């Protein structure tokens, strides 16, 4: 009996999710995004670490979330836009042989307020150089109109000088995922970077259908992971009756959910279709969970301390970086000595950086 039940679950699982079919389809067109579970579990740790508020620990990659699968990461630059409450870093993972860029999600107010704003307040603007493409004004300016973009671009040049022209992987969670997408697009379109890959977690919609279609062409190697009933990927809302007026996701979604009967529960990772709005993926359920938004692959995504826009500046931080008149901070590794590993407990090393 037990065995038959088990087989039934497997059959149902295959019928409902069809992951096998979807994966096969993805593999046939090999320049498209291929979902790699191992890579996802690594990148989610990068997206989690960028939330850490102790800047010295983050810069020296000694924070509590800087261990595990990301151990040995070489941070090139940490950018903290205090004015706009944004945080991002650029570094090199020798394991992945890639530059990794990670963006923090929103810390400005309570997540509930932010989600409500995303539902009701949809200020859009034209995406420059793409006729009819509209994007969310808040996400666009967070990347393009703050200290974040110049910081990222200079760090990419530094990384190139130190490690050569290696692949670039851009990641982020929540609003950080939206910024990651806009950053990757910027790198491909304006900086002519060739090998750019994107993986985001719990990302909101960024723009309209025209934007999604431009994005898809520029960045075929993009995976948007959505966890179960996470509310944020459902926002700003999608109205299928106004296909040209509505916000629309770009592909390719990977939807994580559980299927189960009684005590037998199986996690499923469904690779969705190339439309960006696969009706059989997360759109088949109601997005009503904040807790599903805050944990992906068992990794916590959110600030480590309960504090609005929490940034911990210890006296060493000023030695590590430069601060502008508005209090925004850039911690930049000096290319000349960057091959030396920072010693987190050694003041002499720090002050020479
Ligand atoms: C998936 O990613 C991991 C980590 O980058 C890599 O080692 C592995 O070869 C990849 N698997 C495939 C099938 O590409
Ligand atoms: C960027 O910031 C400047 C100055 O704060 C402002 O005048 C401009 O309108 C902003 N651009 C966008 C696209 O919001
Ligand atoms: C860091 O510096 C301390 C004190 O100078 C030293 O004891 C320790 O071994 C160093 N750690 C590394 C990893 O070099």
Automatic annotation (TrEMBL):
<feature type="signal peptide">
    <location>
        <begin position="1"/>
        <end position="24"/>
    </location>
</feature>
<dbReference type="InterPro" id="IPR002921">
    <property type="entry name" value="Fungal_lipase-type"/>
</dbReference>
<dbReference type="InterPro" id="IPR029058">
    <property type="entry name" value="AB_hydrolase_fold"/>
</dbReference>
<protein>
    <recommendedName>
        <fullName>Fungal lipase-type domain-containing protein</fullName>
    </recommendedName>
</protein>
<feature type="domain" description="Fungal lipase-type">
    <location>
        <begin position="100"/>
        <end position="238"/>
    </location>
</feature>
<dbReference type="GO" id="GO:0006629">
    <property type="term" value="P:lipid metabolic process"/>
</dbReference>
<dbReference type="InterPro" id="IPR051218">
    <property type="entry name" value="Sec_MonoDiacylglyc_Lipase"/>
</dbReference>
<keyword id="KW-0378">Hydrolase</keyword>
<dbReference type="Pfam" id="PF01764">
    <property type="entry name" value="Lipase_3"/>
</dbReference>
<keyword id="KW-0732">Signal</keyword>
<dbReference type="GO" id="GO:0016787">
    <property type="term" value="F:hydrolase activity"/>
</dbReference>
């Amino acid at each position: 009996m037990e065995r038959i039940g088990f087989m039934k679950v497997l059959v149902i699982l295959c019928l409902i999710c069809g992951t096998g079919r979807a994966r096969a389809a993805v593999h046939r067109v090999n320049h498209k995004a291929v979902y790699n579970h191992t890579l996802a579990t690594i990148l989610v740790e990068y997206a989690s670490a960028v939330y850490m508020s102790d800047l010295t620990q983050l810069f020296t990659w000694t924070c509590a979330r800087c261990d595990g699968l990301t151990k040995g990461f070489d941070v090139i630059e940490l950018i903290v836009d205090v004015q706009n409450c944004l945080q991002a870093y650029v570094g090199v993972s020798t394991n992945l042989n890639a530059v990794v860029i990670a963006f923090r999600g929103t810390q400005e107010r309570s997540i509930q307020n932010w989600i409500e704003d995303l539902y009701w307040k949809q200020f859009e603007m034209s995406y420059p150089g793409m006729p009819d493409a509209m994007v969310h004004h808040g996400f666009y300016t967070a990347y393009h109109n703050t200290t974040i973009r110049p910081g990222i671009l200079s760090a990419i040049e530094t990384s190139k000088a130190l490690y050569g022209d290696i692949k670039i992987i851009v990641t982020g969670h929540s609003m950080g995922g939206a910024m990651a997408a806009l950053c990757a697009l910027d790198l491909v379109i304006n900086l002519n970077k060739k090998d750019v890959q994107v993986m985001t977690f719990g990302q909101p919609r960024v723009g309209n259908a025209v934007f999604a279609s431009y994005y898809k062409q520029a960045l075929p190697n993009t995976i948007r992971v959505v966890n179960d009933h996470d509310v944020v990927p459902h926002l700003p809302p999608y109205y299928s009756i106004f296909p040209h007026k509505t916000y629309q996701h770009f592909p390719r979604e990977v939807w994580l959910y559980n299927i189960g009967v009684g005590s037998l529960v199986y996690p499923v990772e469904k690779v969705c279709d190339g439309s960006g709005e696969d009706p059989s993926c997360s759109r088949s359920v109601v997005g009503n969970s904040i807790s599903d938004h805050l944990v992906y692959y068992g990794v916590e995504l959110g600030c480590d301390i309960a504090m609005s826009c929490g940034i911990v500046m210890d006296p060493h931080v000023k030695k590590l970086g430069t601060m502008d008149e508005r209090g925004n901070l850039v911690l930049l590794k000096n290319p000349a000595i960057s091959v030396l590993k920072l010693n987190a407990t050694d003041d002499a090393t720090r002050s020479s950086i």
